[in-house]
Amino acid sequence: MNVADLTGLTIAELQPLLRQREVSPREVLAALQSRINQVEPQIDAYLSLDFQDAYRQADQADVNLPLGGVPIAIKDIICMAGQPCTCASKILRNYKAVYDATVIRKLRDAGAIPFGKTNMDEFAMGASTENSSVKLTRNPWDPSRVPGGSSGGSAAAVAAGMAFGALGTDTGGSIRQPAALCGVVGMKPTYGRVSRYGVVAFASSLDQVGPLTKTVQDAAIIMNAIAGPDSLDSTCLKEPIPDYTSNLEGDLNGVRLGLPKEYLANGIDPQVRMAIERAVTEFRSLGAEVLDISLPHTQYAIASYYMIASAEASANLARFDGVRYGYRAENPQNLFDHYARTRAEGFGPEVKRRIILGTYVLSAGYYEAYYAQAQKVRTLIRRDFANAFETVDALISPTSPGLAFPIGERNADPLQMYLADIFTNAANLAGICGISVPCGFAATETGTQLPIGLQLLGKTLDERRILRIAHAYEQSTQWHKRRPPLDKSTHP
Amino acid sequence: MPEANQIDVGRVAKLARLGLSEEERRLFQGQLERVLEHASKLRGLDTSDVQPAAHAVPVFNIFREDEPRLALTSDEALRNAPRQANDLFIVPKVIE
Predict the structure, then answer these.
(1) Angstrom distance (rounded) from CA A212 to CA A164
(2) How far is residue A127 from each of residues A150, A174, A346, A378, A450, measured CA to CA in Å?
(3) Tens digits of per-residue pLDDT, A242-298?
(4) B47 contacts in A (CB within 8 Å)?
(5) Residue A209 lies in a domain
(6) What is the pLDDT of residue B5?
(7) Is residue B16 part of a domain?
C-alpha cells in the first residue's frame, strides 16, 4: 500500500494493517507527518506537534491493543504530561502539563499515541476557533471560512487527514458543531460518562470530553477507550461501560425518532433544512418511524446556558491569579494591581466578557434573577427531554442552523455567535448524549461545497443506541466518504 | 427584582479582579447589555414550583477509601511557577 494513502484511512481500516504487520506504527506516524507537512500550512489546526515524543511512543506501541499504534490528536485543553497545555490562551502560553489527564492515560492504556495539541477558542469559549490567542484555523472545505468551535483544530485535523481521530471537549456544542462544519463525526457523551480529570475546567456542570472521527465506528472505538468511572472525578458515573462497537450493524426497524418542531421553526439555512428533510426520508427507508415532537422550552435554552456557563467559568477562571502558574504581569503597584493586570494582559476579549457576565449573574442582587432562574429553567429543559424520550428513542435535528461562516463575519456581535449554539447547548444543560454525523453538502456562491451535520440526541447513558442509529444512517449514505479538495487548493 | 441591562461593567470587572481598558469597558458594556436583554426572557417563565438543577446528571454521596496516594512532588508543583526559589512560590511584596 502506498504510505501516502494511509492518512485517508479510518481507524477501523488502519487497525488490521497494523495488527497484520503490513505497516508499523512508525510508518503510520511518518505518513501522518508527511501529510501534516503538506496540509498544515493551509489549515493551521495544531498548536504544538512533538514528533520526537510520538516516534518514541510508536516504537513502543503494542499493536494488539484496541488502539495499538494509532495516533490521536488532543485538544489543547487536555493535559498530557510534558506537553504544552495552553487552552490557546496567552495566560497559559508557557504552561506544560505535569501529569496526564485520565482520558490520556486511558488512551495510552488502549495503545493509542496521543500526539499533537489542537487549536481551539481560548478556554473553549467560542463557536469558530477565532477566539484562539495564537492563530486562526481554517475550514478544510473552504479556507476562507471557520472550522467551527471550540474544538475547531480537532475537527479540521480529522477532516484534512492530519489526524485519524481526535479528542475535543463539548460544553455547549464544541465537539458536535465543528464536526458538522468540517464534515466529520463528533460525539458528546452523557455528562459523567468520561472523566474530566486533567481537563482544564470551563463550566464544570456542562463540560464533557468526546471523540471526533471520520466515521461513527471510529467514534465508538475511541469511546471504548476513554469512557468509564474514575475515582479522580467524583462526577464520573459508576455504571459499567458497554462495548460501543458491538451492535452497530442492522436496520432501524422499530426505532422511533423524534423531530423537535422548535428546532425546524425558523432561522435555518434552507440548504440545511433540505438536508435534514432528505435525512428524515432516509431514516424512514431504513425502517425508523419519525414523529414530530415538541421541546417547549427550547427558546430559553441559550439564555439559561449562557448564564450558567458564564457563572461557572467566572469561578473556574479565578484560579488564574499569576501566582502558581501561568502568565504574571510585571511590577505590580499592589496586590489588586497584580491580579487585575495579570488577568487583563493574559485573557482575550471573549474570556473577559464571560468572566464579567458570570461574576455579574452571581453577584448580590442579581443571583436570583439570573443564575437561580437559569438553573430552574435548566430543570424545565431536562423535563422537556425526559418527556420526549417517553415516546421516542432519539431526537434528530440539524447540528447547527447554518453552514461554516466566513472568517470574521460574527466577531463583532457576541450574541450572534451565542445564538449559533441553539441546537446543541440544551443537551449539555440536560446532560444527555449527542452525536453529529455528515448528512449532505451545500453549495456556496463562490463554488465551494460545505458539509452539513445531522445531530442525534439520546437519553442519559444511551450512547450505544445513538451510535447504532448514526451508523445505520452513515452507512446508507456516502457523505462520510467525501474528502475536502485540499490537494487541489492553493494557499488562501 | 433588578431591571435587566443594569450591568455596570467597570464595577463588575473590579469584583472579578480583571483590569479593563476604557475602550474594552465601553465595548463590553454594550455587548453585555444585549446579552442580558436576551437573557431577560428567562424571567417571563413561571418557575415558582420548579427546583433549580445544579447538575445535569445528579449523583450523591460519592465516597472512596481514604488511602494515601501519589500527588505532585514539590518540583512538579513549582515547574510552571512564574517565579520560584527554595521550594517556594515567589510573589511580589504585597504588604507595605
Answers:
(1) 9
(2) 5, 7, 21, 21, 17
(3) 999 999 999 999 999 999 999 987 789 999 999 999 999 999 999 999 999 999 999
(4) 373, 376-377, 380
(5) yes
(6) 58
(7) yes
The three cell numbers locating residue B71: 500527588
Among chain B residues, CA nearest to A236: B59
C-alpha–C-alpha distance, residues A300 and B34, integer Å: 15
Domains identified in chain B, total number: 1
Lookup result for grid cell 482544564 = A200
List CB contacts of A427: < 8 A, sequence separation 6 or more.
A173, A188, A385, A433, A434, A457
Give the minimum alpha-carbon distance from A206 to chain B in angstroms, rounded to a whole number. 7
A166: CATH:
3.90.1300.10
Domain CATH for B13: 1.10.20
ipTM: 0.94
- From the candidates A336, A360, A382, which should be mutated to test the interface with B, based on the most B CB atoms within 10 A? A360
Residues of the domain holding B37: 1-45
**Average pLDDT of span A330-352:** 96
Q: In this structure, what C-alpha cell is assigned to residue B24?
A: 474594552
Residue B17 in domain: yes
